[in-house]
Amino acid sequence: VHERQNDVLNEGVAVLGRTAAFAASEAANLRQADVPGHLSFASLEAAACRAVDALLALLQSRVSDSRVAESVCDAIGEILDTCSPASPVRERALEGLFAKDGQSADLLSRVAVSHASNLNLQSKVIWVSGVVHGAVSVIQEMERHCATHALQLPAMKTLSVLYTSHPQIERRDAMARPCAVRAVVSAMEAFPANLELQQSACNALAAIVETHLCRGGEADVGVLSEDLLATCLRAAHAALSLVLGCSDSGHSASHRTLLVKKDAVRLMGSVCNVAPSLSTWLRESGQEQVLTNALVATADRVADGSRDEEVEDVLRIELIALSHVSGACAAIIEPLRRWGPSKPAVVRAAADAVVELARHESAAPPGSPLRASVQELCAAGCGGEFVAAMRTYPRDEELHTRMQLALGFLGTGSSPLAVPS
Questions:
Q1: What's the structural domain count of the chain?
Q2: Per-residue pLDDT reduced to its tens digit, 322-335
Q3: Contact between 257 and 199 (Cβ < 8 Å)
Q4: What is the domain extent for residue 371?
Q5: Per-residue pLDDT tens digits for 102-119
Q6: What's the domain of life for this entry (predicted)?
Q7: Contact 125, 108 (CB under 8 A)
Q8: 342 — phi, psi (to 5°)?
Q9: Roughly how many angstroms between the first and final C-alpha of the chain, as a whole number?
Q10: Among 98, 104, 349, 364, which is disulfide-ready with 368 (CB 3.0 to 4.6 Å)?
């Protein structure tokens, strides 16, 4: 009976949260449009505020109940997502969740402390805090609980979302980029053998670094120094070296190593894209070998003649990263010649990599090996490699479509050679 009552209660919380979010959203629309109606924006906001009060009262009385706490955090998070910064509904929620003096224990902190081992709930608490206060609040939680893996992981996932969810990140989050990098790298150093944390960390760092490339964003504040970018590169190198040294024991472990490789290599490519001088350092110091080893390991993972979409995506990311370091010709044509005749997965990854390089070639910073990469690929016979692959895999229509697109960017799509005999 108690379990059924809890189910009803949690369902009621979800319905109340959605209804309040709708009311807050409609109130904002009416306020902005100044549309008269039977239900004014003020009455809608008042109704949403009453719903928030009810949710907060429930959380206050059942703070030790993890299911109720999760449901309420979900509901309040949904409401906050629909509110403008000046919304009275948002203000009401913040008054109930956070202590005004900054000293006393607020309700959200009590929830976090009461369920320290509940990773799912911790992620919701950190997410709500991050949505309200930005990346700084997440970083503070990471620093406060630097020895607690259960808090570091959801914090990194929240940072990833904050730095990727909007085309233009908020100024406060842009300013926090250097601190965010330091916090994430510190966590990687504290838990060097935890593959899930290493993957989430590389994903978060890549999201932070890639905001430097967003036009129209806050590129003028929170700029990452070359030293910090080098720190990111070393962290990615360490994570990649870790998984390359792992022996895959079972499907789950094998899949995790693939995900770590994907995000670590993506981070290395992003850093080299932002700071081409670091790609030069990577190449001249011989550190690029870890990228080559990663590519070989991923290619060997796919059986001859077979396709695997997830592995192909990792291969594409590896080819792009190698292009930043070694240049497009060495990164793409050599793997095509080595594996193209036996592994269509590598061909598909190479075709997608060519398309991506062509689309972003003009945006490559000065000194980048990607400048004029399409012209170099054409001169080195990349188009001919794709034509040969078309003849090798005549029945794979999806693969042909991708190769035709790559040939189009290479300027050989209309050539008679582009049609397999």
A1: 3
A2: 999 988 999 999 99
A3: no
A4: 300-412
A5: 444 588 888 888 887 787
A6: Eukaryota
A7: yes
A8: -120, -20
A9: 71
A10: 364
